[in-house]
């Protein structure tokens, strides 16, 4: 869509590789692995370098078995479950990620709350989808490269999020299991065509996750970028509505 | 040498030539006509033209079939062997003898009939219709049983359609599943309920039908003594059914309209069921004891207050706080849930907590309290390892819990000790399990740094295992179990067989001990508590009792557990 700015135009895209980001990224690492934050915790910077935290709610949508839970675990740097079990309710995962704004050079912590809900649970219980949709900032539409129907269903899924009732929500398409090219069921040409017609950013993930940040950085910056770009969030960046550094920043409620 | 052997060869050639010269010669046309006639005459017996009938083919693969005898003559005798049956059968091998225990519908248990499953070769083509269903491929079963794991099968009770199988790298082959169902069905036709069976190799099979809709079958390779193994499998089936109700609700399981859809829906229970089968988390004994694994926090009043307040603010009466997967504090109503539900909910929360997600909203049914109406189980990870849960809606996490971060960290620091440091355990206690019989709660711990000694003491993992075995041993033999809440009278009479000792004597055993090479153990029962202790072999046997009583009074005095 027209209002999606070019990659890297709002936040510095590979900031995690720069030296000056090190002190911020150290706050989300523990013994070279990503730190797991409870709801009462958040990355705390020393008082002189306090950083604001911006909250985003991101819903992960996709067919059953497409890899929603695995993607959430991957983004949070958690262990990807070795066996596939259905998610029978909503699970949310919190990811903290420091970003640097390109224009002002200001550093922010993104607090991305990923909402993952099993497809079958959504079908069986009516109350789950409304709570996932409530005040959502971005949606990740997932399809699996090994599952053609999940790709074919995408436009249908995305269509459901276009109505006026939904409001302005940043959208992003993610193709999972890209590493299993032996079983690939979706041709590269189809993906390109799809991307042209829908005009949405599309990412490919799959393969081993090493403990480093580089793997996930691209993805993490991207939803953030899309969310920032959606305009809705532009207003947030001026005066951030949630003050960080204090304990209250980890409240589930949002102002 | 060579010349004489040459001579013999030459003689043979001459003999052959003479033989051929003496043959009566005929014309080719006549020979052809003879050949043709012979072929036409014998065409019916030519296997190339008509094929080989399977009864006369000596090369056909040996068919394995098993045979089901007796049960017509219930309850007069114990065993009926196939040989006693006047059927034209020839017995090949009988190395897979398998006995089944029949449990009559009236609830009285006894060895009323016995079934011998054998591998034999059948020569008659038409089996009796009544004997057709229970064809158990006993040798396959034996093979599967050897690996010592537990298999779980789920079928529809009415039609025997397999819904799922869990718990093994290799699936049980379909004929085996069909046979296990068939044996049960056959018993049903004879007016008996088949509850369990034991194979010669020590394997166990346990059947159970729930709500006339779902049949669960557990198959285990055995190992431990059969009585204890049976109790374990019975409990496993009960727990698996509860898991299924918890996730899907009872209505979905009993009103089966679309089997294919149910099969798909049942997949969502696999995570919990696998957790039950594998017993992944060390040091959690709830599945065994049906008592909630608890942790006694150093500052119970503070946490209790916070849990109560949090639950109240969330418009719920059910709230609990888990540290390291054990309940540190819970509202009064939470403790009033059936013990099995408390254990099951803890298991759900543990598995959610293991995934590392920050919060969850899971619809759950309560197997006893609310099997048809779903509640929302909300779980919030306050710190990694500390979860708070309510059964309702809540968005107030930070407000209530932020002031308590330090108290929570203190709880976390307790680790697997589960008891505040104010409780001083005697140095010669290796491991302990303390059950409060009134509240159905339990605390357990294994010393992580036992004193160095010679011979070396059992490892931590082994201590947990020994503690489990001690519990199973004492509770099946000496201490009666009371689970009035979740066991129906019918089931209790089924279970009654585990209490031989109790039945044989008019008094209740209060204490028991055992001494092995690895450690000494002591079990103690009072009106309110049960305590199971492991101690190093160096402790003199006469001192076991005083160590146990002192430990019990120390813990109860310090924590009021």
At a glance:
The complex is a heterodimer of chains A (255) and B (561). Chain A is 26% helix and 21% strand. Chain A has 255 residues and is of the alpha/beta class.
Global mean pLDDT of chain B: 73
**DSSP helix fraction of chain A:** 25-40%
Oligomer: heterodimer
> Could you say how many structural domains of chain B there are in total?
4
Shape of chain A: globular
Strand order of the largest sheet of chain B: 3-7-8-9-5-6
**Straight-line N-to-C gap of chain B:** 102 Å
How many strands in all of chain B? 20
Could you tell me the radius of gyration of chain A in angstroms? 18 Å
Helix % of chain B is 25-40%
- β-strand percent of chain A reads 15-25%
Biggest interface, residues from each chain: A-B, 39 and 36 residues
| CATH topology description of the largest domain in chain B | Beta-Lactamase
Distance between the termini of chain A: 29 Å
Order of helices and strands of chain A: HEEEHEEHHEHHEHEHH
The secondary structure category of chain B is alpha+beta
List low-confidence stretches of chain A. 223-255
Largest sheet of chain A: 6 strands, mixed
Descriptive labels:
heterodimer; A: 255 residues; alpha/beta; six-stranded mixed beta sheet; two-stranded antiparallel ribbon; 9 helices; globular; disordered C terminus; B: 561 residues; alpha+beta; Beta-Lactamase; six-stranded antiparallel beta sheet; 19 helices; 20 strands; Guanine nucleotide-binding protein subunit gamma (chain B); cytoskeleton (chain B); methylation (chain B); G-protein_gamma-like_dom (chain B); FUZ/MON1/HPS1_longin_1 (chain B)
């Amino acid at each position: 869509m027209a209002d999606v700015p070019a990659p890297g135009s709002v936040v510095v895209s590979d900031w995690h590789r720069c030296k000056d980001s090190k002190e911020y990224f150290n706050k989300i690492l523990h013994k070279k692995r990503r730190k797991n934050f409870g709801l009462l915790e958040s990355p705390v910077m020393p008082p002189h370098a306090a950083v604001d935290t911006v909250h985003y709610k991101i819903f992960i949508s996709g067919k059953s078995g497409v890899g929603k839970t695995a993607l959430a675990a991957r983004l949070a740097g958690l262990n990807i479950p070795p066996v596939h079990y259905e998610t029978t309710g909503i699970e949310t995962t919190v990811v903290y990620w420091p970003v640097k704004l390109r224009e002002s050079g200001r550093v922010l912590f993104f607090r991305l709350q990923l909402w993952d809900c099993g497809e079958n649970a959504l079908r069986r219980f009516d109350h789950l989808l409304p709570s996932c949709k409530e005040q959502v900032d971005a949606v990740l539409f997932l399809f699996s490269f090994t599952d053609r129907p999940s790709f074919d269903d995408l436009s249908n899924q995305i269509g459901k999020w276009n109505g006026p009732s939904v409001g302005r929500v940043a959208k992003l398409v993610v193709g999972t299991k890209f590493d299993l090219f032996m079983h690939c069921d979706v041709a590269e040409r189809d993906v390109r065509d799809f991307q042209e017609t829908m005009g949405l950013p599309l990412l490919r993930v799959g393969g081993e996750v090493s403990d480093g940040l580089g793997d996930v950085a691209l993805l993490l910056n991207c939803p953030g970028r899309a969310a920032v770009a959606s305009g809705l969030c532009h207003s947030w960046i001026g005066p951030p509505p949630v003050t960080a550094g204090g304990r209250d920043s980890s409240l589930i409620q949002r102002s | 040498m060579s010349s004489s052997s040459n001579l013999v060869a030459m003689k043979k050639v001459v003999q052959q030539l003479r033989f051929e010269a003496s043959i009566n010669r005929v014309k080719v046309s006549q020979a052809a006509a003879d050949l043709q006639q012979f072929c036409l005459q014998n065409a019916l017996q030519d296997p190339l033209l008509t094929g080989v009938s399977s009864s006369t083919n000596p090369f056909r693969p040996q068919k394995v079939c098993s045979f089901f005898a007796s049960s017509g003559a219930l309850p007069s005798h114990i065993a009926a062997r196939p040989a006693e049956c006047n059927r034209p059968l020839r017995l090949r091998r009988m190395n897979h003898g398998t006995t089944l225990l029949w449990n009559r519908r009236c609830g009285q248990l006894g060895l009323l009939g016995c079934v011998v499953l054998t591998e034999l070769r059948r020569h008659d083509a038409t089996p009796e219709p009544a004997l057709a269903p229970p064809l158990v491929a006993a040798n396959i079963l034996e093979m599967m049983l050897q690996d010592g794991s537990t298999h779980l099968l789920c079928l529809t009770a009415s039609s025997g359609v397999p819904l799922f199988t869990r718990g093994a790298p290799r699936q049980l082959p379909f004929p085996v599943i069909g046979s296990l169902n068939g044996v049960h069905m056959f018993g049903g036709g004879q007016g008996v309920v088949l509850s369990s069976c034991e194979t010669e190799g020590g394997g166990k099979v346990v059947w159970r039908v729930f709500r006339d809709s779902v049949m669960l079958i557990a198959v285990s390779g055995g190992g431990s003594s059969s009585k204890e193994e049976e109790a374990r499998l019975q409990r496993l089936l009960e727990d698996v059914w509860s898991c299924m109700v918890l996730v899907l609700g009872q209505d979905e399981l009993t009103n089966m309209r679309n089997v294919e859809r149910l099969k798909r829906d049942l997949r969502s229970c696999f995570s919990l069921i696998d957790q039950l089968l594998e017993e992944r988390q060390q040091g959690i004994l709830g599945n065994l004891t049906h008592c909630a694994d608890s942790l006694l926090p150093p500052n119970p009043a503070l946490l209790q207050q916070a849990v109560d307040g949090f639950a109240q603010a969330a418009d719920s009466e059910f709230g609990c706080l888990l540290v390291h997967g054990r309940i540190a504090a819970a509202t009064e109503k939470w403790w009033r849930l059936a013990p099995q539900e408390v254990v099951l909910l803890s298991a759900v929360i543990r598995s959610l907590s293991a995934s590392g997600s920050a919060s969850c909203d899971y619809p759950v049914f309560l197997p006893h309290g609310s099997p048809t109406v779903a509640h929302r189980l909300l779980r919030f990870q306050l710190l990694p390892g500390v979860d708070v849960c309510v059964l309702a809606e809540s968005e107030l996490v930070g407000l209530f819990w932020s002031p308590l971060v330090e108290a929570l960290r203190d709880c976390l620091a307790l680790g697997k000790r589960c008891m505040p440091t104010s409780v001083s355990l005697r140095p010669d206690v290796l491991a302990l399990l303390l059950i409060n019989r009134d509240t159905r709660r339990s605390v357990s711990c294994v010393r992580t740094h036992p004193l160095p000694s010679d011979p070396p003491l059992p490892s931590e993992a082994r201590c947990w295992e020994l503690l489990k075995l001690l519990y199973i041993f004492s509770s099946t033999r000496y201490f009666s179990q009371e689970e009035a809440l979740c066991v129906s009278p019918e089931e209790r009479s089924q279970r009654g067989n585990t209490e031989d000792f109790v039945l044989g004597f008019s008094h209740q055993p209060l204490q028991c001990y055992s001494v092995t090479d690895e450690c000494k153990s002591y079990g103690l029962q009072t009106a309110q508590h049960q305590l199971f202790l492991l101690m190093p072999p160096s402790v003199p046997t006469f001192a076991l009792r005083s160590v146990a009583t002192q430990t019990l009074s120390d813990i109860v005095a310090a924590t009021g557990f």
